[in-house]
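Dear colleagues,

As part of the handover before I leave the project, I'm documenting each prediction I ran so the next person doesn't have to rerun anything. This entry is a single chain, and its sequence is reproduced below.
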Amino acid sequence: MSASASALGIGLGLGRQTPGRSWVRPGAVLDADFAGGRFAHAGRNHPTKPAFLAAVGGVEATGTIAIGPHDVPGAPERVTNGDFSAGTAGWTAFNGASLSVAAGIMTLQGTGSDTPGFQQALSLTKGQAYRFRGKLRMSNGQQPALHVTRNPTNLSGAATIHSDTLTTLHEVTSTFSAEEAAMYVGGRQAAVASVLSSEFDDLSVREVLPFAGFAQGGFAAIVAGTMPAAASGTKVILEASDGAWSYTSFTSHNCVRLVWDASRRLRLIVRARNTEQANLDLGVVDVSTPFEVLFSVRSSEFRAALRIGPVVQHASGDLPGIARLYLNRQNESGSTFDGTLRRVSLYGSAWSETQFLTHQAGTP
């Protein structure tokens, strides 16, 4: 496939809109033909890129796109007594913390131990994505933190964590992947020998998706574009991520990432719990060269291939929960893809080996 003359700038092309949906790839729940100016999502055609982005909850900035998260309608609240209306019920103090509630706000008082805190166990679905919300305040010089973690004794396995020094009660939020079925949500102070207090309120954990129509557990994609004129560093063409936050920055602990590196190799990389699960090397794609890659991912079944090329597979590892979709960028800062992204077709479930080969042959 050749690069479209209508593709502009860093790679999100603008072009003419074609009526009807006959152009949409069968089975795709999201199909964005940037070069042709055609967009579809969940069975609906959208006349312009701005209309498409509005429909999928996407934002474009300096040639990159971030989509999601989408709150699942009717998703149950996973936190018990997150507004502290029942006092401290459901919450367990640790590291010498003293807990009290007044006017619906939890006060965490240190009693001389390091990093005092409180938390409760959550029963989640491993590999599902969730949105975490909560309020916190530094009241008398003691810096508070809110966290979701798979480790009940420390933050070494934190899925997401917020900490700041604002002295007004304010909301923080992040999405995360349930790295285990048992996770823990709560708050603490980031201090040694704390004897001061911090306040917390309105903790919540609910299920999210990157966009309506997406289903956790596996997905597939066809991605087409043209490589940049020069190779340097790592350039992220597409990332499906849990979108998590760690203290003051985004993380890449849980993601599916299509990258082109300084050696001009195209790779599909899957990470879960901050550990690489799969790294599929599709070989060299030279600078300024058009490419089209297909991939399919679910736990213990990862496949990827160029349109004309061998299928590379990996048969072990976990797939993380996905809360956000990024085009021409990653969840973290940096590694922007400065080639041209012509089309992204995303499918709501993984493909079997037979289905993969059928799609690769161009006959879905």
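The helical segments are 49-56, 353-360. Residues 130 and 206 are 5 Å apart (CA to CA).

All the best with the project,
I.
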